[in-house]
Amino acid sequence: MGKFAKRKEGKVVGKDAQDRPGWKGPGHVKKDGPAAKSKKEKMTEPKSEETEPEPTVPASLQQTLLNIFRDAFPELVASNDLQRVLQDVKGALYERDFNRAFGTDEYLEAYSLRWSPSRALGYTTMLVDIQEYLAPHLGLVEQSQDSADPTASKTVALHVICFGGGAAEVVAFGGFQKFLEDSISQKPKDTGLEDAVAKISITQQSKIKLYLVDSAAWQHVATKLNEGLSSLPILKYANSAAKEANRALLPAGEITTTFQKENVLDMSLPQVMEMIGGELKLLTLLFTLNELYTASIGKTTAFLLNLTLASKPGTLLLVADSPGSYSETTVGTEAKKYPMKFLMDHTLLAKEKSEAGDEDASWEKLVSDDSRWFRLPENLRYPIPLENMRYQIHLYRRV
Fold it and tell me: Which residue, 54, 152, 172, 180, is the most exposed by fewest CB within 10 angstroms?
């Protein structure tokens, strides 16, 4: 058995930079004394640009999502070659040789097993954090305020196109759907809660239609993980009561995943328009946009403009990436670096003229945060150590 296989019940290890500004650690206790700041000093102290929201996704659900990754690739988990394969993939990623890193099913499985789980948990948290904006798009229904029948509703499936999407997105949207179902089923019926989620209810027709687009061949991995969302978890050494209570994360068919192998930078406007179609969509670029800018700022700008032209009003665009991402381009004779956020806003928030001659922005920004942390709960278990995730997040709506 390989090193990782022997530790398959090992604890998740979440590592952060030790010198992260403002980080006091989980055991930090405020001490009174001469060094303590006064209340007045604290009030005038500038707010940190980095935010760390309270955990919103239960650790039990996060553990279930990790188990789906583990159970999807049992042969690789138990393989003596796992460590070698992971090192090969890591080396290819370091050299930015993406054709090699994602060139075989074995390497894609290894990447999914090692790097996708923490991303999936982080993405689930992102979706939960922006759920109020997703509610009108979801495979959920908002109860009519005017109808005499409290169950009267209209079902709308959530159509999602993930550009650069792969393993993490499949499990993340499964986790998001499960979170919503659990949240709604656990809410008291007579509290009159006013938030967006309290106004919606799940129906049997509730679905998420996921469409992945990437230059790597994720079909094999995406199919395995999509099946894992509706498969019974693998139980070892479980008693009869545990086996009796064993349930899949979601009923079969609640999430459908379709994959298309395509380099988005080579897509024409007609191709983008055909892909997006006439329905409202959630479009995502999760840890993808800065890589596109790095490949070509010109082509990436053209791609974003094509998304703008192809999207109908109300379409949402979710972008997440590493904080402080910069891309270099040549202006005149000098090479300059620009923040990803600047390049993105310059394109998406540009004014466009209407037929009446008025100028309106193409998109409006609903959420923007330059730095957030997703931290793994300490009690999670997984056969391979995973890391916490720091990211920037931006949500736009087509106007």
Answer: 54
Q: Which residue in this structure is represented by tokens 């206790």?
A: 29
Structure tokens that stand for 398 in this block: 């087509």
DSSP assignment of 319-357 equals EEE-TT-EEEEEETTEEEEEEHHHHHHHHHT-EEE-TTS
Could you read off the pLDDT of 247-297 as tens digits, one per residue?
Answer: 889 999 899 999 999 999 999 999 999 999 878 899 999 999 999 999 999
Q: How far is residue 153's CA from residue 140's CA, in Å, rounded to a whole number?
A: 9
Burial of 205 (0-12, 13-18, 19+ CB in 10 A): exposed
CATH of domain 3-14+51-398: 3.40.50.150
Cβ atoms of 59 and 377 closer than 8 Å:
yes
Could you write out the DSSP letters of every residue in 157-186? -EEEEEET--HHHHHHHHHHHHHHHHHHHH
- pTM of the predicted model as reported, rounded to 2 decimal places: 0.80
Provide the 10 A C-beta neighbour count for residue 335: 9
Domain edges within the chain? 3-14+51-398
